Structure formats: C-alpha cells, structure tokens
Amino acid sequence: MPAFFAPSMGRLIEELSKLPGIGSKSAQRLALHLVKRSEEDVRSLAEALMDAKSSVQHCSVCSNLTDADPCEICSDENRRRDLVCVVEDPSDVVAMERTRDYDGLYHVLHGLISPMDGVGPDELRIRSLLDRVRQEGVEEVILATDPTVEGEATAMYLARILRPLGISVSRIARGLPEGGDLDYADEATLSRALQGRYPVESD
Amino acid sequence: MPAFFAPSMGRLIEELSKLPGIGSKSAQRLALHLVKRSEEDVRSLAEALMDAKSSVQHCSVCSNLTDADPCEICSDENRRRDLVCVVEDPSDVVAMERTRDYDGLYHVLHGLISPMDGVGPDELRIRSLLDRVRQEGVEEVILATDPTVEGEATAMYLARILRPLGISVSRIARGLPEGGDLDYADEATLSRALQGRYPVESD
Fold first, then answer.
1. How far is B197 from chain A (nearest CA, A)?
2. Interchain pair A6, B67: CB under 8 A
3. What's phi and psi for A53, nearest 5 deg?
4. Has this prediction a pTM greater than 0.80?
5. Does A72 sit within 8 Å of B53, measured CB to CB?
6. pLDDT tens, position by position, B81-95
C-alpha cells in the first residue's frame, strides 16, 4: 500500500506501523497528520525519540527506567528503605506513584514468569531483588504483580524464595474495584472479595 | 502523570500524546516500547519523520502529497488527462489507486466544505481545479468525496460551479457494499441502493 504514497511518506508509514497497536491504517493517518504539522513540531518529536533512547537506562538498584543512576525514587531520602514493592514493569511504578499512598522503594522485574513465552525466573530481575533484601535492611516486600495467571505464579515463586530470608512478604489485595458494581462483577472477583472480607468495627 | 517518569521519558510521552488517536495511556505504552528497541530502530523512525517532513510537498497540479513536483501520477504519460477524480485528501487517492480500476488524474481538495468548522470553498483547492478544467482539456470530473453531509455538500457545490464549464460531472455511486448483508444495511444505504437500481440484462 505505501507504494501509492510518495517514497518518503511510504517509509514513514512503514516505520510507524512497526509500533505496537499501530496498524497500517493508523500509521497512514498518523503520517498524513505529521506532514501537516510544523517542521518544529516534527523535529521536537524526532528529538524526544532520540533523546529518550540515549538517556534512559535501568536504575542499578531497582531496575526502573531512569535518566540518572540511581533513580530519583531510590535516591529520595524521604522514602522508607525497609519497604520494597515488586512490580512487573515501569508503568506499574507510575500507577503506584499516582496513588500518592506509597512511600517505600520499588523493584521492577521487567516481566513475569511465563513458561508459555519461555520466560523463567532467570530472565527477570530476581537475583538483584534477593541481593537487596539480604544487604539493604529490607523488612517487607509487597508483591504487586498483576492478578493474572502469570502475575500470580510470579508472586508465588517470589514468596517461596523470599520467606526463608526472614522478612514479611505480602500480596496486594484483590476484591471489588472502588466504585464497582456487585451486579457486574465476575465470579472470580466476587469470590475473592468474599474470601477477603474483613470485620467492620461498630462505633 | 509524566512527572513520575524519568524526564526524557516524560518528554517523549508528552510528544507522542500530541498525535491524533494517541491518549496518554497509549503514549506511555509506545514510549516504553520505543526505549526497549535498538538505537538503530529508533534512529530510523526519527529520520523517517524528519525526512518525510522536509521532502513532502503538494503537487502543483493536483495538490496530492509528493516528493517530486509534479507528482508521479500527474507526470504519468499512460494516464488519461481528460478525466479528473476529485477527492477530499491524499488517503482517498491511495484508496482509489488500490482499486487499480482508475486511469485518470486526481484533484485533492484537502478538506470538505463544512460551515460548522468554518471551512468554506476558499479554504479548499477549488480555484486550481477550475483552472485545470478551463486550461487542460478536462472532459469529465468525477466527484468522489465521502457520502457524508459534508462530502455531499461539497460535491453539490462543485457540480454547480463545474457544469457551466461544459464538461461532464459525475458522482461515485452509493449502494450496498460488495459482500454486504441486506439484513444489516442501514435504511439510508438501502434506500440509496433501491433508488440507484439498474436494469438487469437477460441473456
């Protein structure tokens, strides 16, 4: 299809359609939009691309993406250093930070254990997590992987290897989402909510 | 939200979310994907962006996007020069070319008449269409704007100003889409299909 476009457009469409979630139709629409934008705007996007690629690295402590090593969170003196929240990837750190309810550190696994996809424990940042727990006075590890088959398997694996180290290991709660509707909840979520019920204090 | 990311990631996410159809969540996902790609891949995308922006121009004849002026289609000796198909934008030229059923030239309006959006005839490439018809031996103009309110209004406007020039003016047919299902066709489409019925020759 790009053959019907000017060569430079064809190449741009081809490059854009390599991005995840961008089909050839969206790539075409994006390319047509981009050539209408000012040269300054396009340069700004191109530079942001190159700049992110060359600046971003993994934090040597928590493996989160960062421009400086250690990352801003690991070097923040106001955070508790005895609490580590384990997540699948950098966007999960963003989700946790958005709650403004967590003041510990993170550990980014960069994936979940998934035998189907050939991802075992050695492909994830698990050894560095164990080193942190052993050497840096960590007292609690919160397992905050997704409540999916892979997330659960990864959490169970980590719990098994972390517990012998004599620290608390916890898992984020499952249940009805805030503002959710009992009627529309799936059975698994509702079962979880029931199992996880907690006593209500009367005044 | 980008505040929770490394600065260079934040800037990339911000730039990506300026694109049409890319919300902050998709921009985040794209950015995380891009920093995982090789530097060569990212450079290739950045260069395609800058290159398309600097090379692509409007053809001085038909206003389609092109790297060379006049465009490949306008300078193709094998195409009929007496037939011009008027479309809204460059992606419509691609759609027409994909049929491999059209061997005339094009004229790209770069928009449709839409009083609601403040787009009148003067904002479109209509004057250059009239000049072509007057000066270049055009015998038929096919109005191939979308079968929408704006597309129809634009086609009617063009028909009114083109007819006095003594040429044939036609409009692409409306009806059931090929492979379509009568059951599922909306009333307007079905009405059009009924109005546009044609005699079937018996052998």
1. 32
2. yes
3. -60, -40
4. no
5. no
6. 999 999 999 999 998
